[in-house]
Design goal:
There is one protein chain. This protein is α/β, with parallel strands linked by helices. The chain is built from 16 helices and 14 strands. Strands 1, 2, 3, 4, 5, 12, 13 and 14 form an eight-stranded mixed sheet that branches. A four-stranded mixed sheet has the order 7-10-6-11. The protein has a two-stranded antiparallel sheet with strand order 8-9. Strand 1, helix 1 and strand 2 form a beta-alpha-beta unit. It is globular, with a radius of gyration of 21 Å.
């Protein structure tokens, strides 16, 4: 796995195109480590073969490290030419002038965007294209649940609480559920907290404005606080990041986690003996409506500072082509960003067939995508949430303070 470059390194300063040599595009992302070994490099080799004179240097690292480096690069004007993006970062980067207007690049290359499943825009211009999309179902450790006397993955909140407490009761440093709440990487609020709201058809917004004091959000926060007080949640949550959550689950110390399909390959490769299942997120008891399904995208963008925007767009175009996007979505076990692409995993893998059913039976839900200062909104929620879990305030106080802080950002 390639090491992630430091923030001061950029292909735009040393790619060699000025003297007629090859153009080298730096592509910073967290995707390569989450794919089978060598799979993403093979796609880059195909691109290079189709585009003589353009080389791709992959700068790969975990999600949290990638985020830190991209934000540092955005501030310093040293972003890699092509960047993997989370939708929560787009508004910030666009407003900083750190990422390029893809609408303009598409127009310059006469690109037909009719096959793109979605585009993330700011003020009417596209700044990110979702390459592949992942749902965030519930992962369950089958052996731990069985040891705790739980016969099947929980379907509602009561069943989940019972299962989480039963697994935590096994002792031997096992926990029922794992919840990453690092303020440094606060996407746990999106993926692991607000997902309980969306799973019951709820919302944190009203007319596009903050509405975190409503009944649905209040119910979800009260529920998680109850799990915390009962000791069902893994210790160390306040400093835990997403990769820590995945490692704990992979090592067999956690009964359940909410996580991306992108990590299935990683879990299987790291611990081939781990028996696990995926299922829909539990909804409120008695809820029979359509469930919102948390999702995240591997989005792609081009740095505004890149000296090779035309070549960078060629790489974006390649990844979004019907054939390549089908390959990438298949090896990533994700839903394609090209509407014409068909991944093969649904027919070949039982876990992903289940994920596809979950996806078909609900609707994709991630209300942070495209919001202004989305990362900061998560962090503001997280700060008050940690005080709540520590016993420093009530649920109502926590949500009212969060509401006020969010309104100030809007």
């Amino acid at each position: 796995m390639a090491l992630f470059a430091t923030a001061g390194c950029s292909a735009s300063s040393d790619s060699g195109s000025g003297d007629g040599g090859d153009v080298t595009l730096e592509f910073a992302q967290w995707w390569e480590p989450e794919l089978p070994d060598g799979a993403f490099r093979e796609l880059m080799d195909e691109f290079e073969a189709e585009n003589p004179g353009i080389k791709v240097e992959l700068l790969s690292g975990p999600y949290a490290s990638t985020k830190e480096q991209l934000f540092a690069g955005a501030a310093a004007g040293t972003m890699s030419d092509v960047v993997g993006l989370d939708g929560a970062w787009v508004s910030d980067f666009a407003n900083q002038g750190a990422i390029a207007d893809l609408t303009a690049l598409m127009a310059e290359s006469d690109y037909d965007d009719s096959e793109l499943a979605s585009q993330i825009q700011v003020d009417g211009a596209t700044y990110m294209i979702p390459v592949v999309n992942f749902v965030y179902p519930m992962f369950t450790n089958d052996d731990l649940l069985a040891q705790a006397g739980v016969a099947a993955p929980p379907a509602d909140r009561s069943e989940f609480a019972a299962a989480a407490n039963a697994v935590a009761g096994l002792g031997d440093n096992t926990s029922g559920w794992i919840l990453p709440l690092s303020l440094e990487a606060p996407n746990g609020i999106q993926n692991d907290v607000m997902s309980w709201v969306w799973a019951t058809g709820g919302s944190m917004l009203d007319g596009g404005q903050p509405d975190v004091t409503n009944d649905e959000v209040t119910s979800a926060v009260e529920y998680i606080k109850g799990l915390w007080d009962e000791g069902a949640i893994a210790p160390g949550a306040f400093t835990m990041k997403e990769q820590d959550k995945v490692e704990e689950f992979t090592n067999g110390r956690v009964g359940m986690m909410i996580d991306s399909l992108a990590h299935i390959n990683l879990i299987r490769e790291t611990n081939p003996d781990l028996k696990f299942s995926i299922s829909a997120l539990p909804a409120e008891d008695g809820f029979d409506g359509e469930r919102g399904i948390p999702y995240a995208s591997w989005g792609i963008g081009v740095a505004e500072s890149s000296e090779h925007p035309a070549e960078a767009w060629k790489l974006v175009d390649f990844l979004m082509s019907e054939e390549t996007n089908a390959k990438l979505s298949s090896i990533a076990n994700a839903f394609p960003g090209n509407t014409e692409s068909v991944p093969d995993f649904v027919a070949e893998d039982e876990l992903f067939a289940t994920a596809f059913e979950i996806y078909q039976n609900g609707y994709p839900a991630n209300e942070f995508t495209g919001l202004p200062v989305a990362e900061q909104l998560m962090r503001l929620f997280d700060e008050q949430f940690q005080v709540l879990l520590d016993g420093g305030q009530s649920v109502d106080e926590m949500l009212q303070k969060t509401q006020e802080a969010w309104l100030a950002e809007f």
